[in-house]
Design a protein that fits this description.
Chain A is α/β, with parallel strands linked by helices. Chain A contains 18 helices and 8 strands. In chain A, strand 4, helix 15 and strand 5 form a beta-alpha-beta unit. The longest helix of chain B is centred in the first third of the chain and has 65 residues. Classes of the chains: A alpha/beta (465), B mainly alpha (137).
Chain lengths: 465, 137
């Protein structure tokens, strides 16, 4: 009776989690969805505490409370610009938790009902190994991603000779350990597997460059789900399996969307090393072509007399924290009767949806913020495209130059606008190391300077005029 | 005469009894052999059930997540991160063992880590979603 009560309770949790994701189909229902997610999690924890195996509560409550306080503080205090590294950090915790739970099942198998004929069954050992491997890769991989996003580790791809061979060797070695472990479960082998797969996660993410982070974060998101699902198989817990599968497929879909946004295969991203060496040679090519540079006053004059402006934000906006100044600028333009909209490229920023969150933080209404497919046709009928902190995602070479590393990548057609205003700190090439021919077009005006400072100067110019 | 025939029939009965007991113990052995087979079949049974649940849930995830609007991809990551901490279910079982052992400590640390994620993930999602506003008219 209690067993079926618990099973049904877990089923309700699974349904609540599905509804939580379903809520995210629109901003209106998303808040409600998040509440359902919280409800599901509370129910899952309560149900588990009712299990007959759970006999002592004191330390559990202490751990729950301590973790809750730490988590709540982090979530309350974090700045929205630090969101990508926060998510990466959180992924590492799920990975580590999965390793620990697998460890608990390995060292105390009776508690989880895994012992048959006086030993852990082969199947359970394989599932435990899988949980450990995915968990450890998620853990160390996410730490590297965190370090890169936080600027603790160089964001440029770190490549060394025979890198892929080393990774392959580590993978093969881990597989051998799993096989030996299944027939001869010993703690040394268990920790050996933790160490090797941890090292593998570390080495897998290290060579991937900063702007590929949207893919990496989505991939690690997916891994954290698969780790939970593997644990679900070990513990024969359907709730863990369902939730793990939901999270895993969600992360996989996001990775796919991000890869498509860059026209690269997931394999190509994982192998890493993109955008490193080319930059030196490529930026010389256009060395002496004339560039039209303008001032904040020029930009203010052009935009005030326009009837429509499309703003194209990129990672540079996040770095300069320019979103608030940008929103103020667009408010003034709207007062002058200018139609202002925002165009977001799928891989703009360092995580999926990064730009949308930052603009939302600056109180930009979400119905002014449009995706690539929704707005790309409108560039040809717009007066001004205002590019702030983006580069590669506007580069026409992706359409015209088959030799370019970004060829085939879907781009925002800013060059079709009557005037392109391009805020940039210098003439340096973008992440892909490719020069942007847009800078040299006659309808382009470069605004050199810090993104935030430039927006503020434009605001002043607009107010004085 | 009677006593010898009686003794003979007694011996015969004893022999039969021995035979029966031998057969019984053989049967018992056979049942014992069978038991682990049934158990391993049962756990194999869960693997198939689990796999069924897993594959179906992947499909549900696939269709639900494709409907998420791209503008909410960041909150999607934060909330999936929070719900993947449901791994706490396994951690709680280890942490709540009657006698404190190595596994309970692993479990307790896992409970701590997962609850950071749960609280942090849901709160940061709520914070993000709170910022999304429609155009004021």
């Amino acid at each position: 009776m209690t067993a079926s009560f618990i099973a049904i309770s877990y089923l309700v949790c699974a349904v609540l989690f599905i509804l939580a994701l379903r809520g995210l189909s629109s901003p209106e229902s998303a808040v409600q969805g998040n509440r359902l997610g919280i409800l599901g999690m509370t129910l899952a924890i309560m149900t588990t505490l009712c299990l007959p195996q759970v006999a002592s509560y004191g330390l559990i409550v202490a751990a729950l409370f301590a973790g809750g306080v730490v988590g709540a503080l982090i979530a309350k205090l974090i700045r929205m610009t630090a969101l990508p590294q926060l998510v990466a950090g959180f992924h590492s915790l799920v990975g580590l938790a999965a390793v620990l739970v697998a460890g608990a099942a390995f060292f105390e198998p009776e508690a989880f009902g895994l012992v048959h004929e006086g030993r852990i069954s082969y199947g359970s050992l394989i599932e435990i190994s899988l949980g450990v491997a995915i968990g450890a890769i998620t853990f160390t991989g996410s730490i590297i991603a965190f370090g890169k996003l936080q600027g603790l580790i160089s964001g440029s791809p770190l490549v060394f000779k025979f890198q892929h061979h080393v990774n392959l060797l580590l993978g093969a070695l881990s597989l051998v350990i799993v096989v030996v472990l299944v027939f001869n479960p010993s703690p040394a082998l268990f920790w050996g597997l933790v160490f090797l797969t941890g090292l593998l996660g570390f080495l897998l993410i290290l060579p991937i460059g900063g702007a590929d982070m949207p893919v990496v974060i989505s991939m690690l998101n997916s891994y954290s789900g698969w780790a939970a699902a593997a644990t679900g198989f070990t513990l024969e817990n359907p709730l863990l399996i369902v939730t793990g599968a939901l999270v895993g497929s969600s992360g996989a879909i996001l990775s796919y969307i991000m890869c498509k946004g860059m026209n690269r295969s997931i394999i190509n991203v994982i192998l890493g090393g993109f955008g490193g060496e080319q930059s030196a040679g490529a930026s010389k090519a256009h060395g002496d072509k004339p560039v039209k540079a303008g001032s904040a006053e020029d930009a203010a004059f052009i935009m005030k007399n326009a009837s429509s402006v499309i703003i194209v934000p990129g990672y540079g906006m996040a770095v300069a924290q320019a979103q608030h100044a940008l929103r103020e600028m667009s408010d003034i333009l709207k007062k002058h009767g200018v139609q202002v909209r925002y165009a977001i490229h799928p891989v703009a920023g360092r995580m999926p949806g990064h730009m949308n969150v930052l603009l939302a933080e600056a109180n930009v209404p979400y119905d002014e913020v449009l995706e690539l497919d929704e707005i790309n046709r409108d560039f040809s009928s717009t007066d001004v495209a205002f590019v702030i902190g983006a580069n590669d995602v506007t580069n026409p070479a992706a359409k015209t130059d088959p030799l370019s590393p970004i060829y085939g990548m879907p781009i925002l057609d800013v060059e079709k606008a009557k005037t392109v205003l391009f805020i940039k700190r210098s003439m340096a090439a973008g992440y892909a190391g490719v020069d942007n021919e847009l800078f040299f077009r006659s309808n382009t005006m470069m605004l050199f300077g810090d993104a935030k400072k430039m927006c503020e100067d434009i605001i002043k110019a607009l107010e004085n005029a | 005469m009677d006593t010898t025939s009686f003794a003979a029939s007694l011996a015969a009965i004893a022999a039969t009894q021995e035979d029966i007991s031998r057969q019984l113990s053989k049967l018992a052995e056979q049942t014992q052999d069978l038991a682990p087979q049934t158990i391993s079949m049962a756990s194999g049974g869960f693997f198939i059930t689990g796999l069924t649940i897993f594959v179906l849930a992947c499909f549900v995830g696939y269709y639900v997540v494709w409907r998420v609007t791209p503008a909410l991809h960041s909150p999607l990551m934060a909330v999936t991160n929070a719900i993947s901490s449901v791994i706490i279910v396994g951690a709680l079982v280890a942490a709540g063992l009657k006698t404190l052992c190595f596994a309970s400590w692993l479990g307790l640390v896992a409970v701590f880590l997962a609850s950071i994620n749960i609280f942090g993930g849901f709160i940061v999602t709520a914070r993000m979603l709170h910022m999304y506003k429609k155009k004021a008219k």
